Amino acid sequence: MQRRNFIKSSCTFCIGATVLGTAVTELSSCASLPIYKGNTDQGFMNIPLSALEDKNMLIVRNADMEYDILLVKKSATDISALLMKCTHQNNPLIANNTGLFCPSHGSAFDLEGNVTQDPALVSLKKYKAEIINETVIINLK
């Protein structure tokens, strides 16, 4: 009977730890990155640089696109735009200050879009983004 209780309590602990770990990861992952709702115009999105405020990252949402875009401001003149779509099985990603995470299968990506944790094997899609006259222009073509 002791063996059965040990196995039962061990399984309960493992399940609880897994659920708690996932919840903490997801909650810290959504650590309130600002979201900007933008529109496309002939394959481009224009986002005011002020939308990044004092943060260096911004989630760009567009009703015409299935997935969000993560803008990462690396310097005053260098910005990148990553499609928040997991390359493993096309699930939406969650972004935080350290990278992007797929809650469905555990893939992870750094802020350059490179894979840091499988099962994904392919880097994230990058869009050309540049800062012109206090506006971030994302080329979606």
Describe this structure as you would to a colleague.
The chain is of the alpha+beta class and 141 residues long. Helices cover 20% and strands 33% of the residues. It contains 1 helix and 12 strands, in the order αββββββββββββ. The protein has one helix at 2-29, and strands at 35-37, 40-41, 44-48, 57-61, 69-73, 79-83, 94-95, 100-101, 108-109, 115-117, 126-132, 135-139. The strands form 2 sheets. Strands 1-4-5-6-11-12-3-2 form an 8-stranded mixed sheet, with no helix packed on it. It has a 4-stranded antiparallel sheet with strand order 7-8-9-10, with no helix packed on it. Strand 11 (126-132) and strand 12 (135-139) form a beta hairpin. Residues 16-30 have low confidence and may be disordered.
Give the secondary structure arrangement, pairings included:
Blueprint: H1 2-29, E1 35-37, E2 40-41, E3 44-48, E4 57-61, E5 69-73, E6 79-83, E7 94-95, E8 100-101, E9 108-109, E10 115-117, E11 126-132, E12 135-139
Parallel strand pairs: 1-4
Antiparallel strand pairs: 2-3, 3-12, 4-5, 5-6, 6-11, 7-8, 8-9, 9-10, 11-12
Characteristics:
single chain, 141 residues, 4-stranded antiparallel beta sheet, alpha+beta
Mean pLDDT: 83
How many strand segments? Answer: 12
Q: Structural class per helix/strand content?
A: alpha+beta
For the biggest β-sheet, the strand order reads 1-4-5-6-11-12-3-2
Order of helices and strands: HEEEEEEEEEEEE
Note the overall shape. elongated
The N- and C-terminal alpha carbons lie at a distance of: 65 Å
Strand content: 25-35%
Tell me the radius of gyration.
19 Å
Poorly predicted runs are: 16-30
Q: Count the helices. How many?
A: 1
Q: Please outline the major beta sheet.
A: 8 strands, mixed
Secondary structure: helix percent: 10-25%
